[in-house]
Predict the 3D structure of the following.
Amino acid sequence: MHTRTLGQGLQVSAIGLGAMGMSQSYGPNPGDRDDMIAVLRSAVDEGVTFFDTAEVYGPYVNEELVGEALEPIRDQVIIATKFGWDIQDGRMAGLDSRPEQIRRVADASLGRLRTDVIDLFYQHRVDPAVPIEDVAGTVGELIAEGKVRHFGLSEASAATIRAAHAVQPVTAVQSEYSLWTRDPEAEVMPTLAELGIGFVPFSPLGKGFLTGTVDASKEFAPGDIRSRVPRFEAENLAANQAVVDHVRRMAEAKDATPGQVALAWLLAQQPWIVPIPGTRRTTRIRENAAATQVALSADERADLDALVRRIGVHGDRYNAEHMAYVDR
C-alpha cells in the first residue's frame, strides 16, 4: 500500500479503516471482541496505517476496542477520533463543542485509546452554539500541550473550514463522499485544494451499496442504520440499482470488484483524498487495499464522473434528523 499526505504533512496509508461498524450501526454487533481486535491488527498487516473512531461510537466502546487492538503497534499507526456530541445515558443528546467539553473528551479519549497523544482530533459535527474560532483555538491549545497532533472537521461547510483554518491549520476534513454522494464537489473540495487540507471520505462504498451486495430485496437487521436512510428504502434501492450495475460491468471488464472500482475512482479524484471504508472482515480489508492497484483510464474516470448525472440518485443520504446536523 502506498501512502498519501493530508494537510500539515500528515502521512497515512492511501486507504484507511473506519472502525465504527465494529461497535454499532450495521445490525447486531460482533459477539467476540477478540475477533474484531484480530481484524484491526490484520489491517496493519495489509498496509493500513490510518484508523478512524469516535467517542460517540458505542458510545465509548469503539475507542476502547481500537485502543486495545493498536496499543502493541501504536508507533506504526495514525489514530483519528472525534469530539462534539453531548452524550447522556449512552445516547446522543445534541451537540456540545464548548472548550471545556473538548478538553474533557480529549482526556477521556486518550485513556480509552491507551495513548499519550491523539494524532487527528475532529470536530464531529459543527456546533452552531459555539464559534468555530473558539473550537479551533481550543484544539490549538491541546496541540501546544502535546495531547493532540492535528485538527480536523467533519461535515463542515467551506465557510466554516476557512474560519477554523485561519485560527488553527486544519489537517483534514471528513465528509460523506462516493460515486453516489457528490455534495462536497461544489464548494468544499475547491476550498480544501486552495488551503492545502486533506479530504477523508467516509461511507466511500455507499454504506455497502456500491459493493453490489445490497439490492431492493435486502432486509436490514434491527439496529442497522440503513433501515432509517431514505436512500435505502426498497423503492429507492430499486431505482438506484442502475448505478451499481454500471459499476459492476466496469469492474468485471477490469477483473476487479465493484467496491474496488468505486474506491479507485475516489483515489483518482485528488492525491490528497484518503477514503476510510469500514468492515468487520479481513477479506474486505484486503479487497479494499487492493483498490490502490486498480487503474482507471481517463475515459473510465469521465464515464464514472458522469454516471450519477446520467442516471440520478433517489433518496437522501440521511434522514431529516441527521441532515439537520450537516453544516451548510
Observations:
- The mean pLDDT is 96.
- The first helix runs from residue 33 to 45.
